[in-house]
Amino acid sequence: MESSQRRTRYVLKRLFQAIPIVFAIVVLNFFLLQLAEGDAVDVLAGEAGAATPEYMAELREKFGLDKPLVVQLGVYLKNVVMLDLGYSFRHDMPVSELIFDRFFPTLLLMTSTILLAVGFGIVLGLVAASGLNTWRDTVISIFALITYATPLFWVGLMLIVVFSLNLGWFPTSGMENFAMFYEGWDRVLDIAHHLVLPTITLSLFYLALYTRLMRASMLEQAGQDYVTTARAKGVTERRIVFVHVLRNALLPVVTMAGVQVGALIGGSVIVESVFAWPGLGMLAFEALFARDLNLLLGIFLLSAILVVAVNLIVDIIYSTLDPRIEMA
Amino acid sequence: MTRLLDIKDLHVGLPAGGQRKYAVEAANLHLNDNEILCVVGESGSGKSLTARAIMGLLPKPHVHIAKGSVTFQGEDLAAASEARLRDIRGSEISMIFQEPMTALNPVMTIGNQIDEVFRFHEKMPAQERRSRALKLLQDVQLPDPEQALGAYPHQLSGGQRQRAMIAMALALDPKILIADEPTTALDVTTQAQVLRLIKQMQESHGTGVVFITHDFGVVADIADRVAVMQNGLVVETGTTDEVLRRPTHPYTQALMAAVPSLIPRPPRPRAEERVLRVNALTKTYRSGGGLLGGKARVVHAAKQVTLDLTRGETLGIVGESGSGKSTVARCIVRLTDAEAGEILLGDTDLRPLGRAAMRPHRAKIQMVFQDPFASLNPRAKVGRIIAQGPEMYGASSAEARDKALELLKIVGLDDRAYDRFPHEFSGGQRQRIGIARALALEPQILVADEPVSALDVSIQAQILTLLDEIRDRMNLSMIFITHDLRVAAQVCDRIAVMQRGEVVEIGPTAELFANPQHSYTTELLAAVPGKGWFASETKPLTEAS
Amino acid sequence: MQFWRLFSRNRSAVMGMFILIAIFLMAISAPLFFPADPFSLAGQSMSPPGANGFLLGSDSLGRDVAAGIAHGAKTSLLIGLLATLVAVFVGVIMGALAGYYGGVIDNLLMRTTEMFQTIPSFLFAILLVAIMKPSIESIVIAIAVVSWPAVARLVRGEFLSLRNREFVQACHTLGMGDVRIMLGEILPNCLSPIIVIGSLMVATAILIESGLAFLGLGDPNIMSWGFQIGAGRTLLRSAWWVCTFPGIAILLTVLAINLVGEGLNDALNPRLRDRS
Amino acid sequence: MNFKTLLMGATCAVGLALSPLSALAQNAGGNLVYLVQPEPPSLASFLSTSGPIGLVAPKIYDGLFEYDNDLQIVPSLAESYEVSDDGKTITFTLREGVQWHDGAPFTSADVQFTVMEVLKQVHPRGPNSFREVTSIDTPDDYTAVFNLANPAPYMLRALSSYESPMVPKHLLEGTDLRASDLATNPVGTGPFTFVEWRKGQYVRLDRNENYWKPGEPLLERVVGRFIPDASTRTAALENGEVMYGAYGAIPNIDAVRLREQDGFSVTTDGYSMINPMALIEFNTTKPPFDNPAMRRAVSLVMDRQFLIDNIWFGYGKPATSALSSSFDKVGLYKAGLPNYPANGDLEAAIKQLDDAGILPDANGVRANVTLDLIPYGEDWRRAGEYMKQAMKPLGIEVELRYEDVPTWLNRIYAEYDFEMNVNFFYQLPDPVLGVHRHYGTDQIRQGTHFVNASRYSNPELDALLAAGAQEPDPIKRGEIYGEIQTILANDMPVANLFEMEFLTVYNDKLVNHATSALGAYGSFSEASITE
C-alpha cells in the first residue's frame, strides 16, 4: 500500500514539475514563431489566388492576429489552461480535433518503431557482445552503423522500390487502403500491412543506437564482480548472460529509449513525408509553413506532454527493473 | 586429516607484452580439511589470482594457467573441462569476495541468488530450496532471515551482505571455501564479527578455507597455516605460529616489522600554544524531502564536536565509517560548511568566513588526502601540482619551482619527478607528492584524512615515518584521521574517538588505550585483529625501519 | 604514444580515420581537381557515371556530380564541425556551471536543458531554419541548438563526479578560484568523453543537414551533399547516380566518424582499455 | 455584335452516356483513387482558387457551364443561354429537377445568390469576372437574367464548376461565408457527394445517386489522396494504389519514364483553361532593374529551351510574347516580337547592356542581384540555379534566395523587397482574367498576392488594357493586344520564360477522365475504370 501511495505521489510530483517546462516550451515557440516573416493570413490569401488587403485585415482580426503579442500569448495560455488548444487558421477546425486525428497514427508508428528498434537492438547487441571481436560482432557493428549512416529518405525510397514496386509485398504509402475502406479486423490487418515499411525505415536509424548501447552495456556488466560470483556458484553461462547480465544491461537501454521519444516525433517528419503517414510530424511541418501558430503550438504542447509522460513511464519501468531506484 | 587440495608448480600466465610473464610463478600450496590457510601478501603479489586459478575463474582469455596442476580430491582442476568446473563450483568449492555490494547482483533478491546455487547443483522442490535458504540465513546470524530472503543487496548493511554471501557460499556444504579479502571493506567491529562467523562455520562443517588477505592482524586471528606471497612467488609457508613469530624469509620479516604495534609510543611533552580550537562544531546532512517529497532524511555528521590542537601535536580522530571523522576534518579545512560552532585558528573564527575572507587563512591549514590516485590531477604534471600553490600566493614561477624541487627532496623523491605525470608513480610515491603539495604553502596545521589506509603495509610504515619527520622538522600540528587503531597508536599524541557524529572520548593515546572510558572505545580496541600477536615482539614504530 | 597505440589496436577505427583523412584531403583539394564552380553547367545533362567525361555522372542540369561531392565535402564537414563546436561550447558552459555549482543553478540550467530535450529536435531544427531562412549559418545554428543539451548533460555528469574528487578538493584547500578549478583542473579531465560525443555529433550534424536539404531547407548558393541529394532525389528512379553518390559520401563520412569515435572511446575510456 | 442563341438539348449528354465504352464501364463501376497535391486548405471553391481545391471541389459542385476540349460551351446547370443584342442582358435557362446533395431543389435563386452574394463578394477572381453584372433577375425558378453594365464576353468563359461553382443558398444565406461549414463539409449538385475528409490522408466522395445526368457518374467512389513526397506519389501510381495524378503531382522526370511503360499514359490535355506561364518579375522601381535594358538583357540571355528540356523534361513551349501563344486561337497573340529568343542570345544581351552604358567592373561584374524563387517545388530551384549560371557570362552575379511560402509572399507582394523573382501565373482563358493583373497601374495593390508586383506603370498601356477589356470586335481586340504585346516586349517588366505544360499521368485502366477543358479541375462524372 505504502509503495503504491509513494508511487502516486511521485507521479504527481513529476507531473507538477513538468508544468513549467511545458509552458516554457509553448512560450519559447510562440515568440520564435513571431520572428518568422508572414503569417497564416498571407498563406491563406496566397493560396486562394488573390485577396484584398481589406479581406486580409478582416481575417487577421478574426484570428486575433491583429492584437499585441502579449495579449495573443495571454489569450493562448488562458485557453490552454482551460484545455482549449484553439482553432487552426489553416484547417478551419479545432486544433484538438486535428491533433487527435493524427495522434493515433503517430503513437502507432512511434510504438512500433521503438519496439522494433529496441527489441532488435537488444538482440543484436547481445549477440555482438557475446561474440566479442568475432565476425558476428564485426558484421553486426558494421550493419548497425550503415543503417544509421544511410540517409533516412534514401532507405525509405529504396524500400518502396524494392518491396512495393518490385516485390509487391507492401503498399507504398498511407495508413489504409483508400479504395476499399476495410472495417473491423480487416482494417487492423490493413493498417498493420501499411505500417511495416515506415516502421522498418524509422527503426533502422535508431537500431544502431540501441545495438551499440546494448553491446557496450553488456560488456560493461560482464566485467562486474557479481558475474564472477555467479560463475563461482556454478551457474551456467547461458543463465549468467540471460538472467544476471541482461537485466542489468537493459537499464541504460531503457533510459535511452525514454530520451529518444522526444526525438522520434520530430525525427519522423521525413518518414511521414516519404510514406505519407498521417502523423503529427508532418502536420507540424505543414503547420510551420502555413504559419498555423495555434496548430504548431498545440503540437509542441502535446509532444512535450507525451515526452513527459513517456519519461515517467520509463522511470516506472526503470524502478521495477532496478530495485535500487526508489521513487521519491 | 585429508588433503583436499594440492597446488603444484602453478604458473598463472599474463598477456604477452606485459612487464611480467607470470602473475604467479611455481606456486606450491596445499590445503587439508578443517583448516584455514591464509595466503597473505601485498598488492600485486598474486594472491588473488592464485585463489581464482583454483576455481578456474581467471579473467579470460588473457590470464590463464600456463603450467602446473591444481589437484582437488585426485582430480586436476587445471585440466578439467568448463562443464566439470561448473559442477564443482558452488557445490564442492565455493568463494566469497571482498566487496559484497558489487559481488551480489544488484537487481536480484538475496533469496533468488541463494536459490540459484541449489537449482544448478541439486534437484529439489522450490519449497525445500526456500526452507534451506532460510536456514542458511539463520545460520549466518542475519537478524531477520525471512525478510533478508526477499531483500535486495542494497537494502542490507555491508556486514549483512557479507553474511549473505557466506550463506550462499556454504549453501551446499562445500569442501573448500575460498575467501578473497572478505573483511577488507568492513569496519573493524564488523570485521571481527564476520571473522568469527567464518571460523565458526568452518569448524562446524569441517571445511577447508583458503583465506586471502593483506592484513597480518586478520591472519593472526584466523589462520591455521600461512603462505606469504611476494611478486608472484610463495616465499614462505608454515603454521601461523612459525610464520608470525619466527619468520625466516627477509620479506616476511620486513612485513612483520612494518605492522604497527598496538602499544602506544611514549608520550611527548605537550606544548602550551593552542593553534586550533574547535568548539561545538555541528554539521547535518539532509537528503530527499522538498515539494511533495515526503520526509527528509537527516544525518548528524558532526554533533557539538569540540577539540583543540597545540603546536607540534598530532591529534588522532578515530572512528568507523559514518562516525563523522572525515566531516570534522573537511569542516576544519573549510571544504564543507558547518552550520554551527567555532573553528578558531589563533583568534580567527574560520567558520563564518566567506571565500574571499577565507583565502588568506587557507595556506595555514592544508590537507593530505586518503586516495593517492584520486587526489592528484591526472592531467597535471607533478611540478605544477606542487608549485601552483605558492604561485597563487605570489611566488614567481622560478621561486615556486625551487620550492617544489626542495619539497620533492624532503618527501624523498628526486628532481626528475617534477616533469612527470602522476600515473607514472606508485601509490606510496603519489602520497609523497600529495604531502609535498600540502607542505608547499608552509602550513601550521596539516589535516591528514586516512593518509595510509589505501597503502600496503610496508609503504604505510614509510609514509607514517615521513609524516612524523616532517612534523618535527617544520613544527607542524597535525590532525590525523584514521580507522586503524594500530596506526593511531604509533602516530598520535592524543586521540578523539567518534561515533555517530559525536566525540565520545578524547585523551592522550596511552591513557585511552590503557584505560578506555567509553564502551565504544573498548569495543573498538577489542575488535583490532591480531591483538597479542605482535604487541610483545614489535618495537615501537619510531624506531623501526 | 600511448594514445596512438591504444587507438591503433582498433583496426576499424584506423580504417575510419583513413577514410576521414581522405575526405579531408578531398575537401581541401577540390579546387585543384575541379577548378570550375560545381554549380556550372558542365555538359550533357543526366550523363551516367563514366559517360561524357563525368566520372560520377551529371545531374539534370549537366552539373558534375563528382565536382559537387568534392566541393560539397568542405561544406558538409564545415557544417558538422562548426555546429559541433558551437554545441560543445554552449553545452560545456551550461553543463560545467550546473555540475560545479549544483543547487539552484543546476536546477535552473537543467530545467532549461530538459526543455530543449523535450522539444522534438528535428522539428525544432526545421523551425529554426525556416525562421532564420535557409543558409549555412542558420543550419549550423539550428543543429547546434538541438545538439547542445546532450553535451550539457554529459559535462554536468562529469563535473558532478569530478568536483568531489580529492584533487579538486585539494585545489579548494589551496584557495584556488572557481573558474580556474573548472577550466584548469576539471575540464581537462572530462575532455575524453567530450571528444567522443563531439565526434559523433559531427556525424549527426551531417545527417541532419542532409535531412533538412531533403525537406528543401538547404542553402541554395553553396554546394553541399545535402544540396545534391535534395536536387537529385526526384531523379532517384531515372538517374540513380545523382543522389546515390552524395548519399554514399554521407554514409562513408558518417561511418568513418563513428568508427573513429568508437576508437577514441576505446582509447580514451580507461574502463574499456583492458578489454579486447 | 450579337451572340446567337445556343440551344442545347440533353441529347448530347445522353448520347455520351450511351456510348459503348461507358456502358461497359458502368457495369464495372469502380473506386478511383487519385492524387491531390498538396492537401487543400479547405474545400470552399467559392472562397479560394487554390489549386488543390480545384482538384476536389468540381466533383461536388456544378457550374452553369462546362467547356469541352475545344473550349466550346457545354451545358451543365444551365441548359441554354441567350445574349441580348446589346450584350448587356444574358438569360440562362436552368435545368429542372436538379437537387442539392441534401435533397433541396436547385433554383434560379441559388444562381442569383451565388453570383451576387458569393462570387462577386468573396471569390478571388469573381469580382473581376462578374464586375459588369449589376443584378440578376429570377422571373421563375428556372430562369436567371444577368443584367450587365457593359458587355462582358469573357464572363461566359468563367462559368465552369471550377471557376464559378453554384452554391446552395439555403445553407449559406445569412451565415459568415468565410467561416462556413461548407468549407469542410461541402454540399453541391455535382456527381459526387462529400463523405469524409481525413486530414493528412484523403478526402472521400461517393457517387451521387440522384445526379441529374442520366447514368452518371460511373464511378462508385472517388478518393483524393494526399502524399507529400513526389517519389512516393510516382511509386503509388506505378503500384496501382492511385490511378491519376495531375498538376505536377507526378514529376516530369517520372512522367517521361512512365510514358514509355505499358499501362500508363501522359497527357497535356485538360489545361487549356488555365494557360500557365513561367516568368521572371522584375522590381522596376529600384536599380538595377529600373533600367529596361537590364530587363531585356535578362530576357535575352535565358535559354528557354534549356529550361524546358532539362528541368521540365520537354514539356513546355518557349514564350515569345507577354501573351501565351494559345491566344492565337482567339486572335490576340502577336508573333515575331523581339527579346524572346528561344535558345538565349548572349551576344544580344551583352550588346543591350553595353549600349545602355551598364559596363562590367574590373572583375567583369555589371551587377549583383538577388533572385527569389517561388517556393512551389524543386523544379523552380533548378530553374533558379540555371538562371544564376546563365546570367554569369552577362556579368550579373546572382544570389539565390529560397524561402518558405509566407515569407516569400510577404517579401514579394507586401514588402516589395526583391529584385527579381521567378514565378508562374495562370493567364486563364482570357487576358483580362489572367494577364491584366500583371501590368495595370490599378493592379499595383500592396498586400495583394499575384498582381503587379513589378510596379510597372505606363499610362499608355493602362489605356490599351482598358480598351482591350471592353472591345467586343475580335479583330480590333487583336490589334489592341498586339500593341500591348509590343510595348511589353520592349519594356519587359515581366520576362515571360515559357508556356508551361502541366501533365496528367494516369493508369490506362482509367478512361474518359479528360472530357472537358478543365481536365483535373473537371468532375470525373464520365470517368470509369475498366479491367
Structural overview:
- The complex is a heterotetramer of chains A (328), B (545), C (276) and D (531).
- Chain A is mostly helical.
- In chain A, 78% of the residues lie in helices and 1% in strands.
- Chain A is built from 13 helices and two strands.
- In chain A, a hairpin with a 4-residue loop joins strand 1 and strand 2.
- In chain A, helix 5 packs antiparallel against helix 10, helix 7 crosses helix 8 and helix 8 packs antiparallel against helix 11.
- Chain C has a single domain, classed as MetI-like (MetI-like fold, Orthogonal Bundle), CATH 1.10.3720.
- By secondary structure, chain C is mainly alpha-helical.
- In chain C, helix 3 packs across helix 9.
- With 531 residues, chain D is of the alpha+beta class.
- Chain D is globular, with a radius of gyration of 24 Å.
- The chains are: A mainly alpha (328), B alpha/beta (545), C mainly alpha (276), D alpha+beta (531).
Write the layout of secondary structure elements.
The complex is a heterotetramer of chains A (328), B (545), C (276) and D (531).
Chain A: H1 2-35, H2 40-48, H3 53-63, H4 69-81, E1 87-88, E2 93-94, H5 95-130, H6 135-149, H7 152-166, H8 185-222, H9 225-232, H10 237-267, H11 269-275, H12 280-289, H13 293-321
Chain C: H1 2-9, H2 11-33, H3 65-101, H4 103-118, H5 121-132, H6 136-162, H7 166-174, H8 178-186, H9 191-214, H10 225-232, H11 240-268, H12 270-273
Chain D: E1 6-7, H1 11-17, H2 20-28, E2 31-35, H3 51-56, E3 65-67, E4 73-75, E5 78-83, E6 89-94, H4 108-122, H5 126-129, E7 133-140, E8 143-148, H6 169-172, E9 192-198, E10 202-207, E11 221-225, H7 230-238, E12 244-245, H8 252-259, E13 264-267, E14 276-282, H9 292-301, H10 304-310, E15 317-318, H11 346-355, E16 367-373, H12 378-391, E17 396-401, H13 405-415, E18 420-426, H14 431-434, H15 436-439, H16 459-470, H17 474-491, E19 494-499, E20 504-507, E21 510-511, E22 528-529
Parallel strand pairs in D: 2-11, 2-12, 16-17, 16-18
Antiparallel strand pairs in D: 1-5, 3-4, 5-6, 6-8, 7-8, 9-10, 10-11, 12-20, 13-20, 14-18, 14-19, 15-19, 21-22
Helix pairs in contact in D: 9-11, 16-17
Protein traits:
heterotetramer; C: 276 residues; mainly alpha; MetI-like fold; 12 helices; 0% strand; disordered C terminus; D: 531 residues; alpha+beta; 7-stranded mixed sheet; 6-stranded mixed sheet; 17 helices; 22 strands
